[in-house]
Design brief:
The complex is a heterodimer of chains A (about 675) and B (about 180). Chain A has about 675 residues and is an alpha+beta fold. In chain A, the strands form two sheets. In chain A, strands 2, 3, 4, 5, 6 and 7 form a six-stranded antiparallel β-sheet that branches. In chain A, strands 1-10-9-8 form a four-stranded antiparallel β-sheet, with helices on one face. The longest helix of chain A has about 35 residues. The relative contact order of chain A is 0.08. With about 180 residues, chain B is α/β, with parallel strands linked by helices. Chain B is built from five helices and seven strands; from the N terminus they run αβββαβαβαββα. In chain B, the strands form two sheets. A five-stranded mixed β-sheet of chain B has the order 5-4-3-6-7. Chain B starts with a helix and ends with a helix. Classes of the chains: A alpha+beta (about 675), B alpha/beta (about 180). Chains A and B meet through α10, α11 and α12 of A and α1 of B.
Chain lengths: ~675, ~180
């Protein structure tokens, strides 16, 4: 019964989405206000209908209803509850339903929070959201129905891939989808602006919160995925340049560029066409990611079971959405009025440089991701493009980006004096040399690139600190005054400072852990002690145990430094029965200065165990930095300037004089 | 219309065209196995209980072309290709050996009695060690073994019509000819 309700919800949502995608669009063209308002009601109904459907599938999973093919194929009655729920989106059909649900949630959010938007813009934005919804709902109903029944129902389900039975991965897809789908709102705003032929600072202010939210979720989603790879796959790696990782990284790069270019639109009324193009490309990359994962054209560890019909559908959808919107861009963008002029050395100039580097980086990642496909298509040769390509192309773009990032916030709008900025960054230069000296003294060896990385870290950290200190006039005035300035800074300034600080943290984490990791792989006997990265690891022995739906081989290691005990580490190897599979659960002791990372393997038949022990300096800073970036995004999001409606009220204030204190 | 505004859509169309082609004509799972043209890894495994003699690498050097099929009772896709294997067995033109991958002996025996046994010999790779030597990363997989135990070709996933036509039947002709 719940299955049929879910099915009903999907069909209802489709009908509503079709109406939402057409009526308001026509109404906006004709200026019919009541029909434009229909968009908001439709968005609400669509959200409720998809919610019903999503709830129905979740109930199917929680209650292990094996009459539903999707549940039987991906769940198991003995699975812990968390993974029964995360199993809902741990498969192709369910993850699409999650996508559609988040899409309808965002549509509803636009309807709810966008009360101050001009009616025609709001109607058009919601209509585009509706049309995207139509595509996804059709895709679900025709090629990937999660509510298909199975008769006779099997006694037991087949279980979820054990690698996916993990808290990190339970939440990785929802965050990633919040990011991907969040970009659909920015996309809808861009298309609506193209239709209206108008992009102005107010538009940029309306779009910015959605871009920020999507960017924040993407940041967190990508970080969760890489963290999962780090602790679950047991090799200590955290990024593999896998096609699907790239598929999430490209929209992130473009969304980052978009965040910055939208600032120029907002403040200076320039870079409008470019911003629109970025908004279209960002969402296009989200869809491209979907195509790559679900069509089977590229081989990836992430690929879902593939079906040619799905590939054809997604590709057709991609052509309609991306091809259609880029064509619209080609027709309408030339008529867009261009705004303010600026000198190359200026805040705008710095943001243009940021955009050029970020989008070139996204383009090289795209090239590396699709190159095997192109080569295979044109010559039949099979290659895989791996880390060497990406390191060789991505790093040379990332390094000047970070170098210039330090300057950007110092530059005034329109025209700047580079010499003045250099003199303000004197201290940063000193700090770079001190950092390099300390690093050299500590490790006295390492690749050149690692020292470049450390220099960039120090440079950015110091620049961010100096910039923030100068805003609050730290040491230039008394502390009380600085504190007052600190409290009165706009939230978006905190946001920027935190986000840039996060970048510095990520650089430190990547550089130090890649360059100065120590490891020891080998068989260890109980009682044996090895030294890795200055820490002594004593292998106490291994035991077997039973988990809820797996068998455990658990090793015990005591880690100590100079005889001082640090921690007891218990890595596990788990053997699942349904489906039969082994997973490694690395034991990780994260510290500020390094992670201790221990993996245990099978017995060698002589009482010893295969072990892998790593000492990874500063690696936690990669994820710590990502979280700081996310928090920065939240700060910016809460800035009153972007609070919904703020722009409109300000306009009212300008047009009609209000009594003092009436400002929102 | 200026070219700079058309460039994005043109770029996209090129990418879309290649993806369209890839969707219908390319298969990314066709990774040329590192092991192709190499000798079979050495192994010796006992049979699924009740299903004949044990299987070792010596059986794969039988002086004629044979198939080594990796299967398991927990594997759903194996059921999909099972009729193909049964038909090959019925025709009797090529020997099929079954590598029972990470399975339980009882479950495997039950599965074979329920669905039929296409294999001349079976070997139980309980821990998947032999599978690692063969580079198995999913079940089912089928290896085409040369007369001297060289791995000639590999089919990943269930044996499809096109695999039968392009990969297996020509080899059977070689055997007969």
């Amino acid at each position: 019964m719940t299955g049929e309700l879910g099915q009903f919800g999907l069909v209802l949502a489709l009908v509503v989405a079709i109406l939402q995608g057409t009526i308001p669009l026509v109404a906006a063209a004709r200026g019919n206000l009541p029909q434009m308002r229909f968009a908001s009601s439709a968005a609400l109904v669509q959200f409720l209908a998809v919610s019903l459907s999503f709830a129905a599938l979740t109930i199917g999973y929680v209650g292990s209803d094996f009459t539903i093919v999707n549940v039987a194929g991906n769940s198991h009655s003995l699975k812990p509850m968390l993974y029964k729920i995360s199993g809902v989106w741990g498969n192709h059909e369910g993850s699409l339903l999650l996508w559609a649900w988040i899409l309808s949630l965002f549509g509803f959010a636009v309807a709810l929070f966008g009360q101050q938007l001009p009616s025609s813009l709001k109607a058009r934005v919601l209509a585009i959201q509706g049309l995207i919804g139509v595509g996804f709902l059709l895709f679900i109903l025709f090629t990937s129905n999660p509510f298909e029944r199975l008769d006779p129902a099997p006694f037991e389900g087949q279980g979820l891939n054990p690698l996916l039975q993990d808290p990190g991965l339970a939440f990785h897809p929802p965050f990633l989808y919040l990011g991907y789908v969040g970009l659909s709102v920015t996309f809808s705003f861009a298309i609506a602006a193209l239709i209206e032929g108008k992009v102005d600072p107010a538009w940029a202010r309306w779009v910015r919160p959605w871009t920020l939210a999507a960017w924040g979720f993407l940041t967190l989603g990508i970080a969760l995925g890489s963290w999962w790879a780090y602790y679950e796959l047991g090799w200590g790696g955290w990024w593999f340049w896998d096609p699907v990782e790239n598929a999430s990284f490209m929209p992130w790069l473009i969304a980052t560029a978009l965040l910055h270019s939208a600032i120029v639109v907002e403040k200076r009324d320039a870079l409008k066409n470019w911003t629109i193009l970025l908004a279209i490309i960002a969402f296009s990359f989200s869809l491209l990611g979907t195509f790559i994962v679900r069509s089977g054209v590229l081989n990836s560890v992430h690929a879902f079971a593939t079906d040619p019909a799905r590939g054809v559908f997604v590709l057709a959808f991609l052509i309609v959405v991306v091809g259609g919107s880029l064509s619209l861009y080609a027709v309408r963008a030339p008529q867009m009025k261009t705004g303010g002029l600026f000198a190359p050395i200026s805040r705008e100039g710095a943001l243009v440089l940021n955009n050029l580097l970020l989008s070139t980086a996204a383009a090289t990642v795209l090239l590396g991701t699709l190159y095997p496909l192109f080569l295979d298509a044109f010559s039949g040769e099979k290659v895989s493009v791996g880390p060497p390509f990406f390191n060789a192309t991505f790093l040379p773009l990332a390094m000047p980006l970070v170098f210039a990032l330090a300057f950007g916030p110092f530059l005034p709008w329109k025209r700047a004096d580079l010499k003045g900025v250099f003199s303000r960054l004197k201290f940063a230069t000193v700090f770079v040399f001190v950092t390099l000296g300390v690093t050299w003294w500590l490790v006295d060896d390492g690749p050149i690139l690692a020292f470049v990385g450390m220099a960039l870290f120090a440079w950015l950290l110091a620049a961010v600190a100096i910039e923030f200190a100068s805003r609050i006039k730290l040491f230039q005035t008394n502390l009380a005054e600085s504190w007052r300035r600190f409290k009165n800074l706009p939230r978006s300034v905190y946001g920027m400072t935190l986000a840039h600080l996060g970048v510095a943290m990520v650089i430190l984490g990547i550089t130090a852990s890649e360059a100065w990791q120590s490891e020891r792989l080998g068989v260890m006997m109980p009682g044996e002690t090895v030294t890795v990265g200055g820490y002594d690891f004593t292998f106490e022995g291994a035991e077997t145990a039973k988990g809820p739906n797996y068998d455990i081989l658990r090793g015990t290691f005591r880690a100590s430094q100079n005889g001082k005990p640090i921690v007891t580490l218990q890595p596990e190897q788990r053997v699942y029965q349904s489906p039969p599979m082994e997973t490694t659960e690395a034991a990780i002791w994260p510290m500020l200065s390094a992670d201790l990372y221990v993996v245990i393997g099978e017995e060698d038949g002589k009482g010893g165990h295969a072990t892998r022990i790593y000492h990874k300096p500063f690696i936690s800073w990669i994820w710590g930095g990502a979280i700081v970036m996310f928090i920065g995004g939240l700060f910016s999001l809460s800035d009153r300037r972007f609070r919904i409606g703020a722009a409109n009220k300000k306009q009212q204030k300008n047009s009609s004089v209000k009594p003092a204190g009436a400002q929102s | 219309m200026k070219l700079k505004f058309l460039a994005p859509v043109l770029t996209f169309l090129v990418i879309a065209a290649v993806m369209f082609y890839a969707l219908f004509h390319l298969d990314p799972t066709e990774i040329p196995s590192e092991l192709i043209d190499h000798k079979t890894p050495e192994f010796s495994l006992s049979a699924v209980p009740g299903y004949g003699e044990s299987l070792s690498s010596a059986d794969l050097k039988a002086g004629k072309i044979t198939l080594l099929n990796v299967f398991a009772s927990w594997c759903v896709a194996c059921l999909a290709e099972h009729p193909v294997l049964m038909e090959l067995k019925r025709q009797g033109k090529i020997e099929i050996y079954g590598l029972n991958y990470k399975d339980k002996p009882d479950a495997a025996a039950k599965w074979l009695s329920k669905h039929g046994n296409p294999y001349t010999r079976t070997g139980m790779d309980l821990k998947g060690r032999v599978g690692i030597d063969f580079g198995v990363y999913g079940v089912p997989e089928t290896f085409i073994m040369g007369p001297d135990g060289t791995i000639l070709d590999k089919i990943i996933g269930p044996i499809m019509e096109k695999d039968l036509k392009n990969k297996i039947l020509p080899r059977i002709q070689e055997n007969l000819g």
